[in-house]
Amino acid sequence: MTDDATSIDRPKALIVISSADQLPLSKPADESIDIGWFLVELAAVMARFEETHDFVLATPDGKVPTLDINGMALAMHGGAHLGTDTARLAMQADVLGFDFEKLRTHNPQLVARRESELALLRRRLGRMPVSQNLPKTDKEAASIRDEIIASLADLPEKKWQSIGDLVARHRDPDDDFSLADFDFMYAPGGHAPMVDFHDNPIVGELLNGLNENGVLIGLICHAPIAMTSARYRLDAAGDVVVDEDHAFKGAHVTTVPKYGELGMLEVGYPKIPGEKTRLTYYVDVALEKAGYDVALTLNPSAVKVVWDAEHNLLTGNGPQSVDAQADRLIDILRRRSTR
């Protein structure tokens, strides 16, 4: 399998990951936290297509993305059971006093999934940095950061295309590369997309180009913030054009809710101890303001996947939804192939 954009051997999938590694905060003022992208929100998709598709890897600027250590907490690997797994692990650690080894022994399925996803990372995505542990990073996840870094250290660094280069190649009549050659595009979350997927004209040009060529777009958790960029296009000279009546306007989407985010800011890994911690904006609020129909769940850990066929847009609300979203992606592509 190759991640080279010129491969023509098999169907292709475009994997777009944020390369941001710092998330600005509104409170405390002028502070930011180390962040990255969540492996758990991508691995289930890549694993299902690993034997059938070639992956083209891209970031907005072509820089290597940063793996977020906070996405490696065992509870994150519970899929639809994220809520109950989080509660059980907290009880085992805080009430029963389990050490890290005992936690792993009592949660073998979560450990096995994490290991399989790290193996996929090493196999398909190569060497990349890992975010710093934060004061509120899950302690068990924090304990394996050095091990993860060591397991990536001797791997080759993959070629990450920039979105701008992909758009330029698509427009070049002398280049055989075309966005139409992709079966789908998929982007995982973590907080990183809030930085370089939001109100980014080159992201908007990519989304519109994919849609115009009938390519399915998959976004999960914080990654749907990319849709705030859909009002931007780039003209032939590369200048930004704003279209408030763009093709995606009014699309049905889901994402992480503000009230779930606020909960994380109070007790989760983004929290700065001793300080009121707030983000500069919230994804669901920004999407609603941009004209999207945003569907949320009352329980932030409940599974929610939304397929908007009119806009070729498949969104999920967090790591708990990745398995359902991957299954839905397979079903949609299968139906398309039999038309």
TrEMBL record:
Keywords: Lyase, Stress response. InterPro entries: Class_I_gatase-like (IPR029062), Prot/Nucl_acid_deglycase (IPR050325). Belongs to the peptidase C56 family. HSP31-like subfamily. This is Intracellular protease/amidase. It comes from Tsukamurella soli. The lineage of its organism: Bacteria, Bacillati, Actinomycetota, Actinomycetes, Mycobacteriales.
